[in-house]
Design a protein that fits this description.
The chain is α/β, with parallel strands linked by helices and about 950 residues long. The protein has 39 helices and 14 strands. α3 crosses α5, α13 packs parallel to α17 and α15 packs across α17.
Length: about 950
C-alpha cells in the first residue's frame, strides 16, 4: 500500500492512521487490496473514517466502455468503507447490513438508468396501445428486499413490467420493433451482465435471476398480468417466503408497489394460515438433506442453528398471521421479530435471544466474507484465518468463539424445532378414529353410544351424512388426513360435554363451513390449544358456536394470545375500527369493519364466558365497540354524500346514542337506538329574509335534506348485508315525534321540542343519551340542551305519576314473565324497573344536584345518587348487586341463544326484592 502512491505512504507514516489500517488489515485482505488500488480512498477514510459515502460515479453515454470499471471501483470503495467502519467499531452490524444494501441499490439503479437511456436511443421506448410509456420494474427479493444484504452477497432479482406494449407505438419501424417481453428481457440481460461479469477489476454484484416464475426455465421478464396468473394458479409455498420480502427498488417503483399489492393475497392469506408450516417443513427437509449431502454442518447460514432457521422461524409466523395483522407484513427481520414479541407470538426472552443470536451470526457471516470478498458462509479450516476471525470479533482464540457460536446455534435450533415439531394433539380413542375412517360404508353406531352419545343413532346418521358430503369427498389427500385426525378428537370432546348431542350438532355445523378452507383444518390440527378452546366455546355457548359456524375467520381468535390477556379499552376499540380502510370500496370496508367487530365481540364473549371479566365490563366494551363502528360508518356516509352533493359549508352533524348504547350497557346482538342532530347557518335572502344554505356540490341540496340524506346513509350502511353479515340493526323511533317525526332534527328544533312538547318518558330517555359520533362542538351544544332539559324544576308527584304510568304500560305490552320464568328485563323488579327508578330520581333531583347529569350508566347513576344522599349506602350497595346479577344472567342467556327469561332462584329473587324496596322507598310502586 505504501508503494501505491506517495500520498498514501506519507499518510501511513502517521502512527494513528497506521494503527487503524492495521486493524482493518487484520480482518480483510480485500480492503487492503482495494486501498492499494485506490490510494485516494485511503486519504478520504483517514480524514473522516468513512462518515461520508464514497462519491457515486456518473455513467455517461460517451464513456460506455468504462461503465463496468466505474461500477466495480465504486462498489469496491464502498465495501471497503463498510469494512473500515466495522473494524474500528464505528458501525454495528445493523448499519453494515443497511450499508451493503444501499451500495447494491445505488449500483443497480445507476446501471439501469444508464442502460434505459441507451435502449431508448437505440430501440425506442416501450409504449402501450394508449401511448403510455412502460418501464422495467426490478424487484429485489431475499436479503436485498429486506434491506439486510450481507457483505458479499449475490442479489436476487426479478424483472417485470406493468403492461404489454411495443416500440412500434413509439414511432419505430414495425418490422424492427420490439415487443415488451423481448425489450425488457434484453434490458435485464444487459443489466445482469454489467453487474455480474467478472473482469480484471472483479465484479460489481453477483446477480441471481432464478427466483422468477419457473426459475431458469421461465421468461426473463414477466408482465404483471402473467405474474398474477402464475401465482394464482401455480405459486408454491417457497415462493410465498421469497415474495414476502420482495421490494421494487429500481425502475418504475410505483408500478412495482401496485403489483405487490395485487400479490398480497398470495403471500398473506386472510385467515390464520398454519398450512404454511407444511411448506416450511418441506423446505427445511430439503435444506437438511443438502446440508448432509454437502457436509455443510459448519455453514452458519444453512447449517443447524444457522441464519436461515431464524429467518424461516420469523417468516413462518409472519405468513401465519400477516393476513390478519398488517403490522406483521414488514420485510425486515428484526422489526418483524419485535412485532411478533409485541403481539405475544414469541416470548420476550426468546425474542431478545433470537435477535441477539441473529446479530451475532450476521456479524460473523460478514467477517467471513470481508476476509477475501468471498460469498462464503462456512467456518474456515485454515488456522491463520480462524485466528483472524476470532480475534477480530474480540475472542481470545478460535475455541472460545466456537463455544459461543455453538451455544447460540443450539438455542436457535431449539426455537426452530419447537415451531415445526408436531404438536401434542388431542388423541381420540382408537374406537372413534376407526369408526370415523370406516364411514360412510361401515362403522358401528355402538361406538358412539360407548363414547357417551345418548342418541347414538341420530349421531351416527349426522356423521354418515358428513362423510358422504361433497365437502369431505372433495378434500385433497393432505386435508383429508388432517380431518381424520381432527374429527375424532372433536367427537371425543363433544361426548364428554354436558350435552353431547347438542355439542355435536354445533360442531358439525362449523365443520361444514370449515371444510371449504383447508387452512382452518390445519389450524385445528397444528394447534391443540385452538382445538381445546373450540370445544369449550362450542359446548358452552350457542352464540359462540353460531358465530364460529357463520364466520370461520373467528377461529383465528381462539389462538390469538390477546384472547386470554387483558381486553382492549375504549381508545383501542375505537382505533381498531378507525384503522379499517379498503380505499374507495365501501362494501369491502363494511365487510372488513364487520370482521373487526365480530372478532372483538367474540373476544369479549370469551372473556365473559371464561369469567375473566364481569358482565358490566363486557356490556361497556360492547357499547364502546359500537361507538367505534358508528364513527367509522359516519365517515363512510359523509364521503358518499359529499361525493354526490358536496359539503354544507359551516355545518355540523352528530349521532346520539340512546338506550343501551347511550347507557353503555349493550348486549350481544343488541340493536342501536340512534338520534341525529345537525346545525347549519342560514343565509340572507332578498328582502332580508333568511333561507337555508345549500351544499356546494354539482347536485346541491338544502341543508336539511343533505343531513337527512346523511342520516339515511348511516342507517343503511349499518344495516347493509355483506359477506360478513350486517353491522347493527338500528332503531330511530326515539327521535322527536317518533316515527312521525323527521329523521334528523336541527339543534334548535330539538331544543324547542324538549322544552315545549316532549313527554316525560322522552325526558327519561334523555337521561341515558350521549353523543357517539360527529362534531365535537355540536356534541357539547347537545350536552347543554340535555342539561337544561333534565335540570328543569319539576313537581315530584307528577314525575312519580308519569314514570309509574309509563312503566305499567310497558310491562303490560312487553313483560314475558310467567309462572315458570322471570323476564330479566321487563319483569316486575327487573332491569327496566331499576332504570325507571334512576331516571325518576334524575328528573326529580337534577335541578338541585347537577352531578346527576354526568353519568349515563346504571352503576354510575347509583353511585352519584348515593354520594348526594338520595340513596343511602345500604340501598345503593343492594342496587349495584341487583344490577350486576340481572345483567349477568341476561348476557348468559344471550350467549346461549335463549330468551332473557330465567327460573327464579335465590340470587334473582334477592335482586328483585332490592329493586322493589328501593322503588317503593322513593314513592314508586311498579307492581
Amino acid at each position: 500500500m505504501r508503494a501505491s502512491a506517495a500520498e498514501a505512504a506519507a499518510a501511513l507514516s502517521e502512527p494513528a492512521l497506521a494503527q487503524r489500517v492495521a486493524r482493518v488489515a487484520a480482518i480483510s485482505d480485500f480492503a487492503i487490496d482495494t486501498l492499494a488500488r485506490q490510494p485516494a480512498l485511503l486519504l478520504a477514510l483517514a480524514a473522516d473514517d468513512g462518515a461520508e459515502p464514497w462519491p457515486v460515479p456518473e455513467l455517461l453515454p460517451e464513456q460506455r466502455a468504462d461503465w463496468g470499471s466505474l461500477l466495480r471501483r465504486y462498489r469496491a470503495a464502498g465495501s471497503t468503507r463498510l469494512i473500515w467502519r466495522d473494524a474500528l467499531g464505528l458501525d454495528d452490524v445493523d448499519a453494515t447490513l443497511i450499508g451493503s444494501t444501499q451500495l447494491a441499490e445505488i449500483c443497480l439503479q445507476r446501471a439501469l438508468a444508464a442502460l434505459e437511456a441507451e435502449f431508448a436511443q437505440r430501440y425506442g421506448v416501450i409504449r402501450d396501445r394508449d401511448g403510455a410509456p412502460q418501464r422495467l420494474v426490478v424487484f429485489g427479493l431475499g436479503k436485498l428486499g429486506g434491506s439486510e444484504l450481507n457483505f458479499s452477497s449475490d442479489v436476487d432479482l426479478v424483472y417485470a413490467y406493468e403492461h404489454d406494449g411495443s416500440t412500434e407505438h413509439d414511432g419505430r419501424d414495425p418490422a424492427r420493433a420490439l415487443d415488451a417481453e423481448n425489450y425488457f428481457a434484453k434490458l435485464g440481460q444487459q443489466l445482469a451482465r454489467l453487474l455480474d461479469e467478472v473482469t480484471a477489476e472483479g465484479f460489481c454484484h453477483r446477480v441471481d435471476l432464478r427466483l422468477r416464475p419457473y426459475g431458469n426455465a421461465g421468461r426473463l421478464a414477466w408482465s404483471f398480468a402473467a405474474m398474477e396468473q402464475y401465482f394464482q394458479r401455480e405459486g408454491r409455498d417457497w415462493e410465498r417466503y421469497a415474495w414476502q420480502k420482495a421490494r421494487p427498488f429500481a425502475g418504475d417503483l410505483e408500478a412495482g408497489e401496485r403489483l405487490l399489492e395485487a400479490l398480497r393475497p398470495f403471500v398473506y392469506r386472510r385467515y390464520l394460515d398454519f398450512g404454511a408450516l407444511d411448506g416450511l417443513r418441506s423446505m427445511k427437509a430439503a435444506i437438511s438433506a443438502e446440508v448432509a449431502r454437502k457436509e455443510l454442518a459448519d455453514d452458519i447460514k444453512r447449517g443447524p442453528g444457522g441464519i436461515r432457521e431464524i429467518e424461516f422461524l420469523v417468516q413462518a409466523l409472519q405468513l401465519i398471521r400477516g393476513g390478519r395483522e398488517a403490522e406483521l407484513r414488514g420485510r425486515r427481520l428484526l422489526p418483524a421479530l419485535h412485532e411478533l414479541v409485541a403481539q405475544r407470538q414469541i416470548g420476550e426472552a426468546a425474542g431478545a435471544a433470537l435477535a441477539d443470536d441473529y446479530r451475532f451470526l450476521r456479524r460473523l457471516e460478514n467477517r467471513l466474507q470481508m476476509l477475501r470478498d468471498a460469498q462464503t458462509h462456512a467456518l474456515p479450516d485454515a488456522e491463520a484465518d480462524r485466528v483472524r476471525i476470532a480475534e477480530g470479533l474480540g475472542y481470545a482464540d478460535w475455541d472460545a468463539l466456537r463455544v459461543a457460536l455453538d451455544l447460540r446455534r443450539a438455542r436457535v435450533t431449539a426455537e426452530f424445532d419447537a415451531l415445526l415439531a408436531p404438536r401434542r394433539r388431542v388423541v381420540a380413542p382408537n374406537a372413534l378414529t376407526a369408526y370415523w375412517r370406516a364411514l360412510p360404508e361401515a362403522g358401528e353406531a355402538a361406538v358412539l353410544a360407548d363414547a357417551g352419545f345418548d342418541d347414538a343413532a341420530a349421531a351416527d346418521a349426522m356423521l354418515r351424512d358428513l362423510a358422504r358430503s361433497p365437502g369431505v369427498r372433495g378434500l385433497s389427500d393432505g386435508a383429508r388426513t388432517r380431518l381424520d385426525r381432527v374429527l375424532p378428537a372433536l367427537l371425543q370432546g363433544a361426548a364428554l360435554s354436558s350435552q353431547p348431542m347438542l355439542a355435536l350438532k354445533r360442531l358439525l355445523a362449523l365443520l361444514h363451513n370449515v371444510l371449504r378452507r383447508s387452512a382452518y383444518l390445519a389450524l385445528l390440527d397444528e394447534q391443540p390449544a385452538a382445538l381445546a378452546r373450540l370445544l369449550e366455546a362450542v359446548t358452552r355457548s350457542a352464540l359462540l358456536a353460531e358465530r364460529l359456524a357463520a364466520h370461520p375467520l373467528l377461529l383465528d381468535e381462539l389462538l390469538d394470545a390477546r384472547v386470554v390477556g387483558p381486553l382492549p379499552g375504549r381508545a383501542e376499540l375505537l382505533a381498531a375500527c378507525a384503522e379499517v380502510d379498503e380505499g374507495d370500496d365501501t362494501e369491502a370496508t363494511l365487510q372488513a369493519l364487520n370482521e373487526v367487530r365480530q372478532a372483538l365481540s367474540f373476544r369479549i364473549a370469551l372473556a365473559l364466558r371464561d369469567g375473566r371479566q364481569s358482565a358490566e365490563e363486557s356490556a361497556r366494551q360492547l357499547a364502546w365497540l359500537a361507538d367505534g363502528v358508528v364513527l367509522r360508518v359516519l365517515a363512510l356516509a359523509e364521503r358518499e354524500v359529499a361525493a354526490a352533493h358536496g359539503q354544507v359549508p359551516g355545518s355540523r352533524f352528530v349521532v346520539l346514542g340512546y338506550g343501551s348504547l347511550g347507557g353503555e350497557e349493550l348486549g350481544f346482538g343488541s340493536d342501536l337506538d340512534l338520534v341525529f342532530l345537525y346545525d347549519a347557518p342560514r343565509a340572507d335572502a332578498a328582502g332580508g329574509a333568511l333561507e337555508g344554505v345549500h351544499s356546494d356540490g354539482a347536485r346541491p341540496l338544502e341543508a336539511a335534506r343533505w343531513f337527512a340524506r346523511l342520516a339515511q346513509k348511516v342507517v343503511a350502511l349499518l344495516g347493509a348485508v355483506t359477506a360478513g353479515g350486517r353491522l347493527f340493526d338500528v332503531d330511530v323511533r326515539l327521535r322527536p315525534d317518533g316515527a312521525k317525526g323527521l329523521l334528523v332534527s336541527s339543534l334548535t328544533s330539538f331544543a324547542d321540542y324538549q322544552r315545549e312538547r316532549a313527554w316525560t318518558w322522552e325526558h327519561q330517555a334523555l337521561v341515558r343519551a350521549r353523543g357517539v359520533a360527529g362534531d365535537t362542538g355540536l356534541r357539547e351544544d347537545f350536552e347543554r340542551v340535555r342539561a337544561q332539559t333534565l335540570a328543569r324544576a319539576r313537581d315530584p308527584a307528577k314525575v312519580r305519576e308519569d314514570v309509574r304510568a309509563m312503566r305499567l304500560r310497558m310491562r303490560a305490552e312487553l313483560d314475558r314473565s310467567d309462572a315458570a320464568a322471570f323476564d330479566l328485563k321487563q319483569g316486575e323488579g327487573g332491569l327496566v324497573d331499576l332504570e325507571f327508578l334512576l331516571q325518576a330520581l334524575v328528573l326529580r333531583e337534577a335541578s338541585a344536584h347537577a352531578e346527576l347529569l354526568l353519568p349515563r350508566d346504571t352503576p354510575g347513576l347509583i353511585g352519584v345518587a348515593r354520594s348526594i344522599g338520595v340513596l343511602d349506602e345500604a340501598v345503593a350497595v343492594s342496587l349495584q348487586s341487583a344490577h350486576a346479577v340481572l345483567l349477568a344472567r341476561g348476557l348468559d342467556c344471550t350467549l346461549d341463544r335463549r330468551a332473557r327469561r330465567v327460573a327464579p332462584d335465590e340470587a334473582v329473587e334477592a335482586a328483585r326484592a332490592s329493586i322493589r324496596a328501593a322503588a317503593k322507598a322513593q314513592g314508586l310502586s311498579f307492581d
